[in-house]
Amino acid sequence: MSALPPPGSRPGIACGLCGGARRRVVLLACGYRLARCARCGLVYNLDFSPRDADYQTADYYTTAHPYVAFRSRFLPYFRRLVARIAAFRRGGRFLDIGAGTGLLLATARSFGYEPLGVEVSAWAARHAREVERVPIVQARLEAAGLAPESCDVVSFHHCLEHLPAPVEALASARRLLRPGGVLFVGVPNWDSLWRRIKGGAWATLQPTEHAWHFTRETLRHLGERAGFLAVDVRVENAADLLTGVKKGRLIALLQAWTGTGDNLAAIFRKPPGPAAEVGGEPGEGGRA
Ligand SMILES: [Zn+2]
Q: Is pLDDT of 241 > 80?
């Protein structure tokens, strides 16, 4: 983690969903201001800077990364996730953007998909190739040279909240998907009960890395704004796996009962017909 900026020392960012600039700060996390957009409700990190997290440095991915250190714990979770995706699109090319160490792709292959990953970290890309035996393009998505309409599934598993332009990222995914293809997005859930209890200390906030904090509603609007049909946007509770935080069984049960788990796991579909132009003027499409 880099040195923390004093609040207000950054030029700041506008809402990544509707482009609006009016917002109200709702939480402080390690000196970073998290604000809610007055127009569309997206919560975002006012002090986010892509420079704070360099995923290409040698120490971001190592053998200590949870996907490597706790691989066997993640496998059942990834199997459930791929099974859910397969219910909407079975077989074909499965592109994972921000593929990390390749475990989701290795799982997709075991379900009969043809895996392909895009990953900026050289260490993670090498690990994915050599250990998980999955093909990886080590590049940013826009530089990966992938052909339009060449994928059946595109996934952003805990990646989208790191990207500076989320609508554009999903629009790129839409261009890569065949008509009727499926987009999966997994992100932290701002409406998590555990987030309400922990406030700015919620481990999943990761303010040096996470620019956007979604709810079911804002995630659905984001997908729709990028030209997708929302199929199944649901709350899950897999963040203990992702952060390694133990919070106790009672909290986890309460989260399950009240639908306030720590994660969102959303399935979208690319419309089967000709593509409409994405986005429109800022503010349009922010509310469905
Ligand atoms: Zn907004």
A: no
